[in-house]
Amino acid sequence: MQPLVERIRAEGRSLGNGILKVDGFINHQLDPQLTVEMGKSFARRFAQANVTQITKVITAEVSGIAPALTTAIELQVPLVYARKKRPITMPEGCYVAQAPSHTKGGIVELIVSPEYLKPQDRVLLIDDFLASGRTIEALATLVAECGATLCGIGCVIEKRFEGGRTLLNHLQVPIVTLAVIDSMQEDRIFVRSPEQDTDNRG
Amino acid sequence: MQPLVERIRAEGRSLGNGILKVDGFINHQLDPQLTVEMGKSFARRFAQANVTQITKVITAEVSGIAPALTTAIELQVPLVYARKKRPITMPEGCYVAQAPSHTKGGIVELIVSPEYLKPQDRVLLIDDFLASGRTIEALATLVAECGATLCGIGCVIEKRFEGGRTLLNHLQVPIVTLAVIDSMQEDRIFVRSPEQDTDNRG
Predict the structure, then answer these.
(1) What is the pLDDT of residues B67-83, one digit of tens each?
(2) Domains and CATH numbers, chain B
């Protein structure tokens, strides 16, 4: 997705240890038009990959919510966002999976209520980053525990050098990302559109 | 906003102690069409209240993000979401305000980086609930600390019986809510469209 790649080039900052700061358009401030385009891009790319008849989008709070919502708007299906702390409105008997937090340290829990994810659901998993793949894997585990079918994984930014795509291979679903970072060195970020973008529209 | 009022009547659950469960369309699962309508409704209602030339929308993670994003999409301005834990991508020198958490207990911190909220900004504050008003007040404090101008407050659901509107009177800005709950008793929720909805479109 070329506008996203250009935005990362213009505003992304490499903070060392593989940490990418994109607070100006993903993790703290959002550009509404860019976020809408992410949703349209995911919808188009999954349709091209023959991922169809999706009934739910799932993501994890916090930064996954925006691109997942615009994807859900485009696909006209509900969005479920996994909670990291169980609010008192959530019943007992929820599914819980654990993943390490990349930008906050420690382990986070991801919690989904089976009220909203059913065995007949065909699920698209959307998140902001594909890095180590551990958060995505935890979400995929929750989808499986609910008995639903995971049909595709979409992440806004892929840090290819962290190997998440390889970790998720065993899930055997299409993995779509909108911008790929091959490496980051000091103040340089090597970012490009993914290989699949043969039409250059991302 | 009549579709929202009807959804609360159909699916909202009173859990006691003033806690309303709306996990099916606000706090865990989102209905994309309803969320888009919330954004359109806020934009229309603030225009009617002569709240114009907005340059930023602000909200707090987590559940404020969705209605704030659709409002930002409608107004075509960036959205800033206050973080509850400082990610390592955030610089030192951020503004921090504290508010009690209604559904999780304890005190939460709300953190905004002055990188994205400037003195020239005219800000609309959007959140999911107006209850005690303490979270909104904390966000308003952050807006003031950044030197920006708060122009209006919009909340999806107002629990009128918790008095938040009175607490926020001193901010002297229009407060727009899309559904008003006058009281909750055991399994009964007394919900209606707000008085301002003379056109019944919410």
Answers:
(1) 999 999 999 999 999 99
(2) 32-181 (3.40.50.2020)
